Amino acid sequence: MGFREWWTGEQHRAEADAPDVVPPSDPSTAITAPSRDEIGSRGVASREALGLGAVFRAVDIRATALRQISFDQKRGGLILEDRPRILDKPDPLASRRAFIEMTGVSLDLTGNAYWRLGYAPGAIKGIDKPVTAEVLNPNDVLIDTNSAGNVTGYRHRGKQLGVYDVKHLARLRIPGTPYGLGPIQAAQVELRGSLDVAKYGSEFIYNGDVPSGTLKSDQRLSKEQADDARTQWEQSRGGKRSVAVLGAGLDYKPIFLSPKDAQFVESQQWSVTTVARIFGAPRSLMLVTDGDSQTYQNVEQDWLGFVRFGLAGVLTEIEDALTDLLPRGSEAVSNTAALLKTDTKTRYETHNLALAGRWRTRREIREIEGLSPEPVGGWDDEPASEPEEVTA
Fold first, then answer.
1. pLDDT given for residue 322 in this prediction
2. pLDDT (tens digit, 9 = 90+) per residue, 25-66?
3. How do residues 334-377 score in pLDDT, each as one tens digit?
4. Distance CA 271, CA 253 (A)
5. Which of 367, 335, 316 is nearest to 74 (CA)?
6. Which of 41, 70, 129, 360 measures 20 to 30 Å from 385, CA to CA?
């Protein structure tokens, strides 16, 4: 089963077979993740969670942000201009953006991501660095450990892989288990509640749990008389555009639901807010409405907080994993400038301050803006000279 099938299809058996907590050397002192047994048989798998529009949007926002980030090689405190191939295109069969996107989505949906590493012919694993990396379907991978809880290898679709064949990335590491903990696995109760509300709302509309109206009488009616009045009403009036004739003492009052009540607006807003909190997605992009007005400054701070605290966990995990694939003495650093770029007016004002303070040159500013080092026709710092007066 490929990555696309994992995204849209049934969960792979590995996800069900994977133990919630791999026994450590001393289980009594281990910090364990919430077990699926505590939730019961109604646990939420990643495929089901993606059925919630808010979850899909949160994952899509994070994936789109990751696609805009590039990674550079840093050595001796300086960024090297030439990127090694393992940074520029880790997977020969996928673009760099797709590689980073699949890694981030794996971490968000399962809490784990796995890269299968490829080596040059004759390379010694553990000594020589890999030259390629491929994102594996996280639901196809199982981790093998020894009695002390140390990772001894991996199993991918029944094939045994060594510790130098796979690079494991984790969203949140829990002492006592080699598996990472993702948002969906940690927030099973909240997500199940959102799914139940969505299901109830759908059944509420289509099954008609609320009666269309009430028949009221100013007289005491026996059960037989009440049933007879209801039957006659439904046969003569129910769902038909005809004139209603009521018996003596009967009065019909329809029950109307406001669009707000019929669509469970508050419950849906609560679900969106909860999902945004779980995934660390910016509330401005999730369209969270909690009564607070969003100014431009609030939105900018929202995005800045998203990069620093919502996305940084995944970014630093990818940085560390890529650093392990680089030659000794080099490290991979992410370039988040594309995400933190402000509007044109603010950027130009900042550039002017940098020029006035003489800590940045015009060439550097033009490079930041993606322009050529010099404007067409060269620099024109002096105003045009006044034409000389011609005297007779």
1. 96
2. 334 334 444 444 544 457 888 888 998 888 999 999 999 999
3. 988 777 766 677 778 888 888 888 888 888 888 777 777 777 66
4. 34
5. 335
6. 360
Q: Which region, left, alpha or beta, applies to residue 13 given φ > 0 means left and ψ of -120 to 50 means alpha? A: alpha
Listing DSSP states for 238-259 in one string gives TT--S-----TTEEEEE----H
The Cβ of residue 222 has, within 10 Å, a number of other Cβ atoms equal to: 8
Which residues are within 8 A (CB) of 280 and not within 5 positions of it... i.e. 6 or more apart? 62, 183, 306, 309, 310, 311, 313
Q: How far is CA 289 from CA 51, 52, 271, 282, in A?
A: 21, 18, 11, 12
Beta strands (DSSP E) in 124-207 are 132-136, 141-145, 151-156, 159-161, 166-170
Interval 284-329: pLDDT, tens: 888 766 655 555 556 667 777 888 888 989 999 999 999 999 999 9
Element (H, E) at 334: strand 330-335
- What percentage of the chain's residues is helix, strand, coil (to nearest 5)? 45, 15, 40
Q: DSSP secondary structure string, 3-64?
A: HHHHHHSPPPHHHHHS-SS---S-GGG---PPPHHHH-TTPPPHHHHTTSHHHHHHHHHHHH
The tokens for 222 are 């026996």
* Sequence letter at residue 128: D
